Amino acid sequence: GSRVIAIANQKGGVGKTTSAVNLAACLAVLEHSVLLVDCDPQGNATSGLGVDRDAVPRTLDEVLLREAPLLDAVRPTALPALKVVPSSPNLNGIEVELLPAEDRAFRLREALAPLRGGYEYIFLDCPPSLGILTVNALTAADSVLVPVQCEYFALEGLGQLLRTIELVRLELNPALELEGAILTMYDGRTRLAQEVIRQVRGHFRERVFRTVVPRNVRLSEAPSFGKPVILHDIKSPGAAAYLALAREFLRRSPRA
Amino acid sequence: GSRVIAIANQKGGVGKTTSAVNLAACLAVLEHSVLLVDCDPQGNATSGLGVDRDAVPRTLDEVLLREAPLLDAVRPTALPALKVVPSSPNLNGIEVELLPAEDRAFRLREALAPLRGGYEYIFLDCPPSLGILTVNALTAADSVLVPVQCEYFALEGLGQLLRTIELVRLELNPALELEGAILTMYDGRTRLAQEVIRQVRGHFRERVFRTVVPRNVRLSEAPSFGKPVILHDIKSPGAAAYLALAREFLRRSPRA
Ligand SMILES: Nc1ncnc2c1ncn2[C@@H]1O[C@H](COP(=O)(O)OP(=O)(O)OP(=O)(O)O)[C@@H](O)[C@H]1O
Ligand SMILES: Nc1ncnc2c1ncn2[C@@H]1O[C@H](COP(=O)(O)OP(=O)(O)OP(=O)(O)O)[C@@H](O)[C@H]1O
Ligand SMILES: [Mg+2]
Ligand SMILES: [Mg+2]
Q1: Which of these, A205, A218, B55, B138, is most buried using a 10 Å CB contact count?
Q2: DSSP 3-state assignment of A75?
Q3: In chain B, which residues have their Cβ closer than 8 Å to the Cβ of A223?
Q4: Which of B151, B199, B215 to mutate to test the pocket of ligand 1 (most atoms within 8 A of CB)?
Q5: How distant is the Cα of B53 from the closest Cα of chain A, in angstroms?
Q6: Ligand 4 is a single-atom ion; what residues have CB below 5 A from it?
Q7: B174 burial via Cβ count (<10 Å: 0-12, 13-18, 19+)
């Protein structure tokens, strides 16, 4: 089997895609087989791995509408052990299209079922909202990874996110667990960051990953080359952080 | 009358709320009467102005569902010329609740109509999505202000946003114009930022504001005190940038 992990936080710009792409890539470099599913209409995880979504046979919206099996949407990346399922702007309209379907929350879970044996880890990159796409990812997942930016506004939404996770656990996916919180874009020079870290540890307690991802320009440059940071600049603090995070994840995360 | 301006970009974390709060506050300091409507279930604009949304009589969701007039939701802020309409987490479910209503895209426009004479400027802070809340804001607005973070991923979504604005103009609000793009979180030390600025000027041409907002920790600290940056640290580069932006906005923006 596989472990399916949703990467979610409705606050925008907190490092969901950067964490999804780089954690998946680092696990692949450490020779674990990984699939990354881009559940965000923006498609940043798709382009961050160098895939041109205008040149692929199938995208996630077609899979959720049952027009194609997920297998047909899987694309290779520069790393042999890492595959990606591209998103498309059509995902913007999926909430309205799926509304009449009783099983609208289960479409991704259903689509992933036949692939679960083929990968050790399947990551689901979520958009910045608590709509049907994030609900689908939470319903399909075994656990949720929450990137938290070391900023004040990022704290505000945590309560809402934890309530949504609880609701999904009660009504749609009783097995859903909290994998943990990752502190991102940490800038040690500011008092604010220290204060935010203190509060996040209050919310998540021992479920906060020890590895803290620093703010590092190499992380924001890498996607412009369509590469994860370990292929863009392996000596950078950003690459070191995500390699350390991948190792910590492996230690903490029970294999399927 | 008033000018109604939506502040929108589906990319998360690009400075929509920071621009909404600080541009509105600077205009209020320059003695223009301003209303800021928080259309985002996260409620960052509400707390960024020191309003406790658990302690207010009415929130925007109730207005959009026609349970209360917008006037009943208006709250004062620390600046006499600036008022705010708080959001609530209930906005997360509004897309599904409004779906049966033919006029679901016009609810905010309808709610704002009676207030338009009372303020010179009305700003609408949008969530990071192209769903019903952003569509409501674009349908209610005279123009759209687009904050663009000086980062690679921020470029990717611009095409989708401009197409959505065009669609709203064709089908819902023929008067909708592009107010312009604001470059945010600029860090002059990186090559990436220069490249992004070059591309944004290609997309928006003369509609890019000359004022560029630098990355400045005072801007991210201010909301933790519930204040716009001009009340938190008026001598900071962040305060100077938004004051300059407010003056440029006044020069460029025709009065109603
Ligand atoms: N540690 C970091 N250091 C520097 N830049 C970073 C870091 N992590 C992410 N970034 C940059 O910050 C921006 C936001 O990150 P990212 O797009 O991964 O967030 P997100 O949560 O996926 O956003 P959205 O909510 O839009 O999906 C991006 O431009 C990214 O390149
Ligand atoms: N110029 C700046 N310098 C430093 N920090 C900034 C700046 N502008 C915004 N920030 C911080 O960056 C984060 C993202 O900004 P903000 O929340 O305003 O973006 P947003 O587009 O409204 O996000 P969302 O998509 O979640 O609504 C916040 O923590 C904010 O305090
Ligand atoms: Mg993302
Ligand atoms: Mg915001």
Answers
A1: B138
A2: strand
A3: 152-153
A4: B151
A5: 12
A6: B 16-17, 44
A7: exposed
Among B13, B130, B187, whose Cβ lies nearest the Cβ of A12? B13
Judged by CB atoms closer than 8 Å, whether chains meet at B221 and A192 is answered as yes
Contact A160 B99 (CB under 8 A): no
Per-residue pLDDT of chain A (256 residues; tens, 9 = 90+): 799 999 999 999 999 999 999 999 999 999 999 999 999 999 999 999 999 999 999 999 999 999 999 999 999 999 999 999 999 999 999 999 999 999 999 999 999 999 999 999 999 999 999 999 999 999 999 999 999 999 999 998 899 999 999 999 999 999 999 999 999 999 999 899 999 999 999 889 999 999 999 999 999 999 999 999 999 999 999 999 999 999 999 999 866 5
- Per-residue burial over B207-217, b if 16 or more Cβ lie within 10 Å, else e, is ebbebbbbbbb
For a mutational test of ligand 1's pocket, the pick from A7, A9, A17, A215, i.e. the residue with the most ligand atoms closer than 8 A to its C-beta, is A17
Question: Which tokens hold the place of B51?
Answer: 């309003």
